[in-house]
Amino acid sequence: MSVKNKKIFVTGAGGKIGSKLVLALRKSGYDVLTLKRPGVDILEVAKYKKEMRSCDYVYHLVAYQNVLDKKEDEFYRVNVKGTQAIMRALKGSRIKKFLYVSTVMVFDKNETKNFYVTSKREALKLVKKSDLPWVVVYPSIVVDLKEKMVWWRRLLTGGVPGGLMSRLGDRERWIKFIWIDDLIEEMVDLVKNSRVGKEYILEKEKVRAKDYMQLMRDRIRAIER
């Protein structure tokens, strides 16, 4: 299938994954429109509805996931209400696929007090019950070794993406992850090669939790050489 003249709308285009996805989609030949405007809230659908409905595909990445926020309100407002607003705006449109980006964390039964996870579960239910031509994408842990961290994240993680997570829980457990460049490549491929009504878990590698930090540090050193 040729992607020439195919339009795709991307929410969350200013984020770590979204910004790289937009570049890759454009490189692949898609005409990309984005929800990345100063002062435009995800719930202000009227400000971007017309552009979004004119597209062939929609990639919905916008999510609130501030780990320091102890209140549920913003998680629910952005992750649930925001998704709901977009789906309502797309009702009756000509889009071929609504690609919703979730997280593998929704499958973790122990995650019952994490507002990010619980809100993503609720949004996922809405997506799968909708009449839209949905496709669900579940990225595993996304590792970007070139990521620049703010000071508090460096403190929590030891300067390694996923560092905190690797040091919690059973040290013998497997950690499944995907390098960010591999993730972007697979996300671009899913636009044309996914099937409506199907779900896709995106993961590439796994390592024991006890070996995770060393693996990442070795890779970082290799990049810096």
In short:
The protein is α/β, with parallel strands linked by helices. It is built from eight helices and nine strands.
Report on this structure.
This protein has about 220 residues and is α/β, with parallel strands linked by helices. It has a single domain (about 5-140, about 180-200), classed as 3-Layer(aba) Sandwich (Rossmann fold), CATH 3.40.50.720. The protein contains 8 helices and 9 strands. It has helices spanning about 15-30, 50-55, 75-90, 115-130, 150-155, 165, 180-195, 210-225; strands spanning about 5-10, 30-35, 55-60, 95-100, 135-140, 140-145, 175-180, 200, 205-210. The strands form 2 sheets. The chain has a 6-stranded parallel beta sheet with strand order 2-1-3-4-5-8, sandwiched between helices. α1 (about 15-30) packs across α7 and α3 runs parallel beside α4 (about 115-130). The longest helix is centred in the middle third of the chain and has 18 residues, at about 75-90. The termini are far apart. The model has no long low-confidence stretch (mean pLDDT about 90).
